[in-house]
Design goal:
Layout lengths: L9 H23 L6 H16 L10 E2 L2 E2 L11 H11 L3 H14 L1 H12 L2 H13 L1 H8 L8 H4 L1
Antiparallel strand pairs: 1-2
Helix pairs in contact: 1-4, 1-6, 2-3, 4-7, 5-6
């Protein structure tokens, strides 16, 4: 039976923290050793910098054709206002590790709604914690971190 405590269990906080630390480290090592696929990472780094400099989500990797004109505005390809939030974090520490850390953190935070949903359905804290841990250990969840930086990583947490 689920206890009356409505907070987040310490075990889940530890799991999220460990996942974030380990995946940030692994992706940073991958990035530093040129193992990152680089395209989307480059787009995100350049876009974060240009948002801070110009206020516009500009990047040159795609050179998308929009409205018949050559454009470097990323929103012509993929409308994603969350890029401005990412740029805010990039302003604090302008480095690739900032983007890698943010992605690992938001993917890990997806275990919180998983826990809450499972707790509501099963009314069993242990099963809810187990399913949240399985979310963190699920290979596609891990691969969401290991293949470049994508703002879609925020979706599980946002649900």
């Amino acid at each position: 039976m689920l206890n009356e405590h409505r907070g987040i269990p310490l075990a889940l906080v530890i799991g999220v923290t460990l996942y974030t630390a380990i995946l940030t480290y692994l992706t940073w090592v991958q990035y530093e050793n040129l193992g990152d696929p680089a395209f989307d990472m480059g787009v995100n780094l350049q876009m974060s910098a240009t948002i801070l400099q110009t206020g516009l989500p500009l990047e040159t990797a795609n050179w998308a054709i929009t409205n018949g004109r050559l454009s470097t505005n990323f929103f012509g390809i993929h409308f994603s206002p969350v890029k401005y939030l990412i740029a805010g974090a990039y302003w604090v520490y302008p480095s690739a590790i900032t983007l890698l850390l943010l992605q690992a953190l938001f993917v890990a935070l997806g275990s919180l709604p998983t826990y809450k949903l499972c707790a509501r359905v099963t009314r069993d804290q242990r099963i809810s914690l187990l399913l949240s841990a399985l979310y963190l250990l699920f290979p596609p969840t891990i691969m969401a971190n290991l293949y470049d930086v994508h703002e879609e990583a925020i979706i599980p947490f946002a649900l």
